[in-house]
Design goal:
The chain is 28% helix and 17% strand. With 254 residues, the chain is of the alpha/beta class. A six-stranded mixed sheet has the order 5-2-6-1-10-7, with helices on both faces.
Length: 254
């Protein structure tokens, strides 16, 4: 099972036919997962935490300013207690993993999964991002890589550029600002060369700090790269282009 880094989008993603088609086609090319473990930009918490495992745990609507119908959307997934046990089994002995008994999936998880696996019949656990340090996240991804042998799909969910405060054209087809193009080109080149060290210096990359005034939408990439069989191998880019002028570049590693 490959591991993914994807741009998850805000709820209006669900109304974008092109992007939904790209995500759906991507999922259709993957083996059917036995479970999904997803780390979203919207949950940074240490110690390491996971969402509730009970069937049908309500979603987290962690956004504002959108149409009312987005707050009524559901994505009821099956009991994930067996998946949680498997996750704990691949982590270091003695590592505290806190389960939030009432916390469901946030929009960085349920929005893309609602497109990719609309039936909601695969157990899903969301895991918190416990740090912003690329090396810590790579090490976590390396641990979680063992889940791939069990058919578990590991996803880092963020956005390759996320300079929301600096956007001036709030339309889905807006042209990419220069800082977004520059950062995307830098990342694409480093990824193509498998240069993890260069990627880890993203705070000095072209387009910064505008591309990521805060870094949580980029850092899930390091969990994905850490889970690769060879983190220095070039990943397969599956989605390119932009949405609201932000790079939606998404990829998978073998």
């Amino acid at each position: 099972m490959p591991a993914l880094y994807l741009g998850h989008g805000a709820p209006p993603l669900l109304d974008d036919e092109l992007w939904c088609g790209e995500l759906s086609a991507w999922a259709g090319c993957l083996p059917r997962p036995t479970g999904i473990v997803i780390l979203s930009a919207h949950w940074e918490s240490a110690p390491l935490s996971i969402t509730a495992t009970a069937e049908g745990t309500p979603l987290v609507y962690d956004f504002s300013g959108f149409a009312d119908h987005y707050y009524r959307m559901t994505y009821a997934t099956p009991d994930a207690s067996a998946l949680a046990t498997l996750v704990r089994s691949v982590l270091p002995s003695g590592l505290e993993v806190h389960e939030h008994s009432s916390r469901g999936l946030d929009h960085g998880a349920w929005v893309p999964l609602k497109v990719m696996y609309p039936e909601g019949d695969i157990p899903v656990i969301q895991m918190s991002l416990p740090a912003q340090d690329p090396h810590v996240l790579m090490a976590l991804g390396s641990r979680l890589a063992a889940l791939r042998d069990h058919g578990v799909l590991l996803i880092g969910s963020g956005f390759l550029t996320h300079g929301l405060p600096f956007l001036t054209d709030w339309s889905p087809g807006a042209a990419e600002p220069g800082w977004s193009r520059d950062f995307d080109a830098w990342a694409a080149d480093a990824l193509a060369r498998g240069d993890v060290d260069e990627l880890s210096r993203f705070r000095q990359a072209p387009g910064m700090p505008y591309a990521h005034p805060t870094v949580e939408h980029f850092t899930p990439l390091f969990v994905t790269l850490g889970a690769a069989a060879d983190p220095g191998a070039a990943p397969e880019t599956t989605i390119t282009g932009s949405f609201y002028g932000l790079s939606k570049r998404s990829l998978q590693v073998a």
